[in-house]
Design a protein that fits this description.
heterodimer; A: mainly alpha; elongated; B: about 210 residues; alpha+beta; 2 domains; four-stranded mixed sheet; about 65% helix; rod-shaped
């Protein structure tokens, strides 16, 4: 049922944006932002189940909890950054989009540094 | 024992593979994917070599290692904060010293007195919107003399701690300067300060010498 909802919202938004693009391009951007938020809101509940399944899997796979939270944070950041960058790109602001992506990449790198350092220490400790 | 070890290891790897394929579905496609792939690569390496670490050396705990490196980075951030505070203090002290020098020059140029002690109290709270404004100026003057000894004494005036200065002043034998109005007006005009915030004293001991 949700799939139908999402598709309908998507098609209606697309048609609206096509109609608005020529006369009022600023409203076209707003419509695309609102559509993205509404679609995300519809699937947010389902996403909770996915995260739960991933948590269980991570526990079974003996992946430490620190890694798992880091990975989830990184996926979240990647989604948000992609969302912002796509909207900027749709509005024709390529430079802003690349700046948003740069910000996201730096934050992901900062989150990954503890894992990287721990791995390096580990490998050096194992070596005879 | 060995079979159990290998079994656990294989199970870990299988779970990990399924976990990662699941993760791949959730991942957004785009420029970010390369970065996430790299981190997933680290994760795979850790899962693959983790049992060996337990096998070879029981002391190594990878989770502890990660916590220590997270703490290390947090500490570094804190240090940079304290450096910022230090820098702010230095800016304030340089500002006060410049102010003192300026006031001293003004007085020595415009009057017959030399500045013996000069205390400047400013708003030191950086959050305050009046940050840097002068709260109070306290001057202890002495008569100008051509004696080199006097010049040496004058050079000793810039102490940093205002409170300490005020305490020291109590020991000085000083009195209200009678014709202080001119000096007060000079400073008041220069810094746009109410005259009641400027106190001028004469160092009697030095004047008598």
């Amino acid at each position: 049922m949700e799939a139908l909802q999402i598709v309908v919202i998507g098609i209606v938004a697309t048609v609206m944006i096509m109609l608005l693009k020529d006369d009022k391009p600023e409203f076209a951007v707003l419509t695309s932002i609102i559509t993205s938020i509404v679609i995300f809101y519809i699937v947010a509940d389902k996403l909770k189940i996915v995260v739960q399944v991933l948590t269980n899997m991570a526990k079974n796979a003996d992946v430490d909890f620190v890694f798992f939270t880091t990975i989830l944070k990184i996926i979240g950041i990647a989604y948000i950054v992609e969302f912002g960058a796509q909207i900027s790109r749709d509005a024709g602001e390529e430079s802003i989009a690349s700046k948003i992506e740069l910000g996201g990449k730096v934050i992901i790198m900062v989150l990954a540094i503890p894992i990287l350092m721990a791995l390096m220490d580990l490998i050096f400790e194992i070596l005879p | 024992m060995t079979i159990e070890f290998i079994k656990n290891w294989v199970i870990d790897i299988v779970y990990m593979s399924i976990f990662i394929s699941f993760l791949e579905i959730v991942l957004p496609k785009g420029n970010m994917k390369r970065f996430i792939d790299m981190i997933i690569g680290f994760l795979i390496i850790i899962v693959v070599i983790n049992p060996f670490i337990k096998f070879i050396n029981k002391d190594i705990d990878i989770e502890r290692n990660i916590f220590t490196s997270i703490n290390r980075f947090n500490n570094e951030y804190k240090e940079s904060d304290s450096i910022e505070a230090l820098q702010q203090d230095q800016i304030t002290s340089v500002y006060i010293n410049k102010l003192k020098e300026d006031i001293k020059d003004q007085i020595e140029y415009n009057s017959d007195y030399k500045v013996s002690v000069l205390n400047v109290l400013i708003v030191e709270d950086t959050e305050d919107e009046d940050y840097g404004q002068i709260k109070k100026i306290e001057l202890v003057l002495e008569y100008k003399e051509e004696d080199i000894k006097d010049k040496d004494i004058i050079k000793v005036d810039n102490t940093k701690e205002v409170c300490v200065k005020l305490n020291n002043n109590k020991t000085l034998n000083r009195e209200e300067l009678k014709d202080s109005e001119k000096i007060v007006n000079i400073i008041s005009k220069q810094y746009n300060l109410p005259t009641d915030r400027i106190s001028v004293y004469l160092n009697r001991k030095m004047a008598g010498e």
